[in-house]
Amino acid sequence: MIIGNGKSTPLSRNAMAYVLAGGRGSRLHDLTDKRAKPAVHFGGKWRIIDFALSNALNSGIRHIGVATQYKAHSLIRHLQLGWTFFRRERNESFDILPASQRVSEHSWYLGTADAVYQNIEIIESIAPAHIIILAGDHIYKMDYEMLLQQHVAQKADVTVACVEVPLAEATGFGVMHIDTSDRILAFLEKPAEPPPMPGRTDVALASMGIYVFETKFLFDLLRHDAADPHSEHDFGRDIIPRLVREGRAMAHHFSRSCVRSSKEAEPYWRDVGTIDAYWESNIDLTDFVPALDIYDRSWPIWTYTEGTPPAKFIHDEEGRRGLAVSSLVCGGCVISGAALRRSLLFTDVRINSFSQVTSAVILPDADVGRHARLTNVVIDRGVRIPEGLVVGEDPEEDARRFRRTEKGVCLITKAMIDRL
């Protein structure tokens, strides 16, 4: 597209970001019993979905759709509070698209591809030239404009964004077998023997769940897929493998479009789909120089910001001193005569006197009773920790009462506390 001064407009201004946010995230277990994975809290003030949405906004995209399904109330409420500032009169749109049986009275979203197919009419009313399909459950910073530019320059039918992963870990991903021109030769779902990248015997190229299509071409694919009784109606299982076989499927390396500040040494992308990964990614933010720079104002992560008072640290007596070391503490928190080390507290958390909290991720509105000792824990929203509770010192006792991971992290929910 050419504007009046002869300069071309960014491709992102005529693109739509379509975020698939309907998944449960079953590997997070009790943490997603009441909320979808994209709605899970992360980093002190955000939800996981805020990263994909912020990437779209910062990339210049002004048309966004979010498909929801599994236990979507908290996700929809978050989107309504924090993301409805897009205005139609500015040629912007933000659509929340719950599974509403638009196509059939008997069908919810049957798969990721069907979640787009059922909303074709809504997308057509916006008429974007390109559509970027995004997973709503990963932590990363990425400029989608660069992804769009590669897609158009290479005249691809689909461009798949990919991240490099160690070969030994690639068995848990959808892996791309590519040639030296980045054309995808095969798409292998969780292969036992992942193919390495050309010239890199120790690294494989894994799908990020991000796909770029020319919109009209995608609609033709989706209509054909919807009519196929043998299809699972899924991008990873049906649409992408078909284009690899019959079309021109290209890989985009995340390192080319990753947004990094001067403090970020490596491209950062995390699937926080397990309790261990979720705990590690949050605790990593407490490092002196964290791998993810959340202080980078040139690429802000947008969200709904609550009006909370400042964090408060009270009492200064021997054995009863409110302090935090190598920790992130959000607004509304009160550290009352307790010690906090290498921990991350979301909003409105209270830690009461004589408690010791180490390597903890504590979600909003939690309350830790006096004399508690907590190590390597994730505490769900609104949990009230009883006085004197000890977690992280006796593995057998922890596993009996809470959900304890292989790495020794304990997830604590209200239901678990109620059973004590």
Automatic annotation (TrEMBL):
Database matches in SUPFAM superfamilies: Nucleotide-diphospho-sugar transferases, Trimeric LpxA-like enzymes
Site annotation Could play a key role in the communication between the regulatory and the substrate sites: residues: Q69, W108
EC class of the enzyme, as a word: transferase
Pathway recorded for this protein: Glycan biosynthesis; glycogen biosynthesis
Sample GO molecular function, one term: ATP binding
Annotated EC: 2.7.7.27
Any one biological process term the GO annotation gives: glycogen biosynthetic process
Gene3D superfamilies xref list: Hexapeptide repeat proteins, Spore Coat Polysaccharide Biosynthesis Protein SpsA, Chain A
InterPro entries, per database record: ADP-Glc_PPase, ADP_Glu_pyroP_CS, GlgC_bac, GlmU/GlgC-like_hexapep, NTP_transferase_dom, Nucleotide-diphossugar_trans, Trimer_LpxA-like_sf
Every Nucleotidyl transferase domain range: 18-286
Sorted UniProt keywords: ATP-binding, Carbohydrate metabolism, Glycogen biosynthesis, Glycogen metabolism, Nucleotide-binding, Nucleotidyltransferase, Transferase
Annotated residues for binding of alpha-D-glucose 1-phosphate: Y109, G174, E189, K190, S207
Glucose-1-phosphate adenylyltransferase/Bifunctional protein GlmU-like C-terminal hexapeptide domain residues: 309-412
Taxonomic superkingdom: Bacteria
Reaction catalysis annotation: alpha-D-glucose 1-phosphate + ATP + H(+) = ADP-alpha-D-glucose + diphosphate
Assembly notes: Homotetramer.
PANTHER family in the record: GLUCOSE-1-PHOSPHATE ADENYLYLTRANSFERASE, GLUCOSE-1-PHOSPHATE ADENYLYLTRANSFERASE-RELATED
Family designation: Belongs to the bacterial/plant glucose-1-phosphate adenylyltransferase family.
Protein name stated in the entry: Glucose-1-phosphate adenylyltransferase
Organism of this sequence: Acidiphilium acidophilum
Gene field: glgC
